[in-house]
Amino acid sequence: MQTLIFPAIVTILALLVYFGLGIGVGVARVKYKIMPPQTTGNEDFERVYRAHQNTLEQIVIFLPCLWLFSIFVSPNLGAILGGVWVIGRIGYAWGYYVEASKRAAGNAIASLATLALMFGTLYNLTMRLIN
């Protein structure tokens, strides 16, 4: 069980990023006077809102990939790739807050980390079945 400590820490970090982005949406609602259930009306608010929503959309794919990779391939490498995802999501949100076009680099980093986790697990499981 001790070998899964690092993927567990990365899981908590990913959830903290998501939680923090949620707080950011609340702050932006007050700042830009966009009260629930409204989600449009100010471009600056909409970027903060979309950064949070897109992270939700991506975390659903990321977390199972992180844990499957950590269990079936390598918990330490899984934690490293997971840490890359967390950094990518922070970069994505930060860039998006500034300007929509500045979100691409962070998105690419996080997406590549997810793909490495996904295909790394698929490859390892396939090799296990073949052997």
TrEMBL record:
<dbReference type="GO" id="GO:0004364">
    <property type="term" value="F:glutathione transferase activity"/>
</dbReference>
<dbReference type="InterPro" id="IPR023352">
    <property type="entry name" value="MAPEG-like_dom_sf"/>
</dbReference>
<keyword id="KW-0812">Transmembrane</keyword>
<dbReference type="InterPro" id="IPR001129">
    <property type="entry name" value="Membr-assoc_MAPEG"/>
</dbReference>
<feature type="transmembrane region" description="Helical">
    <location>
        <begin position="108"/>
        <end position="126"/>
    </location>
</feature>
<dbReference type="GO" id="GO:0004602">
    <property type="term" value="F:glutathione peroxidase activity"/>
</dbReference>
<keyword id="KW-1133">Transmembrane helix</keyword>
<protein>
    <submittedName>
        <fullName>MAPEG family protein</fullName>
    </submittedName>
</protein>
<dbReference type="GO" id="GO:0006691">
    <property type="term" value="P:leukotriene metabolic process"/>
</dbReference>
<dbReference type="Pfam" id="PF01124">
    <property type="entry name" value="MAPEG"/>
</dbReference>
<feature type="transmembrane region" description="Helical">
    <location>
        <begin position="6"/>
        <end position="28"/>
    </location>
</feature>
<dbReference type="InterPro" id="IPR050997">
    <property type="entry name" value="MAPEG"/>
</dbReference>
<dbReference type="GO" id="GO:0016020">
    <property type="term" value="C:membrane"/>
</dbReference>
<keyword id="KW-0472">Membrane</keyword>
<feature type="transmembrane region" description="Helical">
    <location>
        <begin position="59"/>
        <end position="88"/>
    </location>
</feature>
